[in-house]
Sequence to fold (529 residues):
Amino acid sequence: MIREVAGVATSVQAPTATVVILDFGSQLSQLIARRAREANVYSELLPYDTPWEEIAKREPAAIVLSGGPESALGDDALDCDERVYASGVPLLGICYGMQILVKRLGGELLRLGHSEFGPAQLMLDRLDSPLFLGVPPESRVWMSHGDSVTAVPPGFTALAHTSRSAVAAMSDDTRRVYATLFHPEVVHTEAGTAILQNFLHTIAGIAPAWRIDSWVEDAIEKIRAQVGDANVLCALSGGVDSAVAATLVARAIGKQLTCIYVDTGLMRKNESAGVVAAFRDILHLNVVHVDASERFLARLAGIEDPEEKRIRIGHEFIAIFEEESKKIPDVRFLVQGTLYPDVIESKTPGSKAGHKIKSHHNVGGLPEHMALGLVEPLRTLFKDEVRQAGRVLGLPDAIVERQPFPGPGLAVRIIGEVTRERLAVVREADWIVTSEIDAAAGSLSPRPWQYFAVLTPVRSVGVMGDGRTYANLVGVRAITSEDGMTADWARLPHELLERISSRIVNEVRGVNRVAYDITSKPPATVEWE
Ligand code: XMP
Fold:
C-alpha cells in the first residue's frame, strides 16, 4: 500500500518489518533500539561497519545511524558501508549519524570551539515536515555534539535550528533521508517519541505490528526446530530470565526439558520452596530440586575474602550441575537466559572488557567439556520485554517482578565468614527489610529497585533491658536504579527506616545496631561484597 504524507511516498511494510540501527558507539544507541520496540517496531542494533550483505539479510524497512563519541571530520572518521547511503531504504541520522550523512552526501561541517551539550530550544523552520508532525514550533531537545552543520548536502532542506546550531535537523523528502543533530531517543527531548514514531510509522511506513505475544509464538517454533527430539537442560535460579527461558522451552518441547534447581542454602527466607513450587505446580516444569546447602557451607568454611567466596560458589555450582546432568540421557542442549544487552555489549565499537570489579557468578555457566549446544531464546529481548513475555506465558508476579538477586546469594551479604548461624541472622534481617519496604511500596516514589540487609562483623555496645549487649551491626541498603549499572540510595521515609531498625534489633538475635547505607554507585557498588 502506498500513501502520500506531505509529499512523501511511504509504503506500509509487512508486520515483521525491521529497523536496523547502526551503532557508532554512543551510549544512547541501545535506547534507540528500545524506543523502536516501544513503538511496536522490531529493531536490531548492529555495529556501524556491518557489511551491506549482513544488513540486507534483515530486509530493513528503515535504517538509523546512531550518535557516537568521535568527530565526523577527519579522514579516519567512522563510516558505514557506502551501500547504506545508496540503498534507497529510509534513513535517519542522529547526532554523529547526521554529521556523517552531511559529510558523505556533500554538505559542510565545522568543528565548534566548544561542544554544545545539554538542553536547547528547538525552533522549527519547516512546520510541514513529516518528521515533525504533531511537534510544536518550539520545544526542548537534548544536544551533545562537537561539530556543527554549515551547509546541508544538495537536495536537502534545513528543517530546524537552535540558538547555537543553524541546522539542527534536515531532510531530503524524495530520498527519504532525515537527520537530527539532537537526540530524539532521550526523555529530555520533549517531542522525541513523536519524532521517532513519525520516522518509523509515517516516513518509513512501518506498521506498529511487533508484539510480544507473536514473538512468543515464533520463539516456541524456533526452539522446536533447533532442538528436534534431543533432551535439554536448564539451570533455574529463581530469577526472571531463566524462568522465562525455561517456560518457553517447556512450551516448545515439554518433557524433553529438565530443569535443575541447585539450592545453595544461600537464598532468602522461604525462597527456594516458593520457587520450586511455582515452577512445578503453576508452570508444570520438570524440576530436579537439589538440596546442596551442606556442600556450599562446607566449601565456604573459613573463607572471608569476597572474591574467593564467589569463585568457590561458582565452582561448586558447576560441579553439582554437571553431576546432576549426567543422570539424564541424551542431553544435547543447555538453555541460557542471555539477553539482548549482553549480545550487543560484546559488539559495541570501542567496548573494552574494563577492570574486573567482581566475578559475577550466574547460573547456567557451561563447563566447556560438556560440549552442549546453546538454546538462548531471549537473545533478542530487553529486560522489560522478558517480563512482558513472562506475563504472556502466565508466570506468577512473584517471579516476573522479582528484584535482582546475586548468584552467590546471601554469601555476599555476609561480610566475613559464612556460617549457618550468620546466614540465619542475615536471612531474618533481610526478611524484615523486604517485608516492610514491600508493604510501603505503594506510597514510595520512585519505588526502590532493590533492597536488602547486610550482616557486618562490626560489634558495638548496646543496652537492652538492664543488661549490656555487645552484638553485630546490620547494614540496610535500598537503591533506586534503572539497570543496576548506576544507582542512588533511596530516600526512604524516616518512619519506615525507624520501623525496620526497631524490628531488626528487637526480633533478630545477635544484632543491636542498624545503619542505613547512603552511598551511591559509583563510587560504591550495590552489593557490599
Ligand atoms: P554490584 O554489586 O556489582 O551489583 O554493583 C549490580 C547488580 O548486580 C547484582 N549482582 C549480581 N548478579 N550475579 C548476579 O547475577 C552476581 O554475582 C552478582 N553480584 C551482584 C546486584 O545484586 C545488583 O543488582
Summary: The longest strand covers residues 108-124. The chain has three domains: 2-203, 212-400, 419-516. Residues 461 and 473 are 10 Å apart (CA to CA). Residues 358, 360-362, 404, 406-408, 450, 484, 521, 525-527 surround xanthosine-5'-monophosphate (CB under 6 Å).
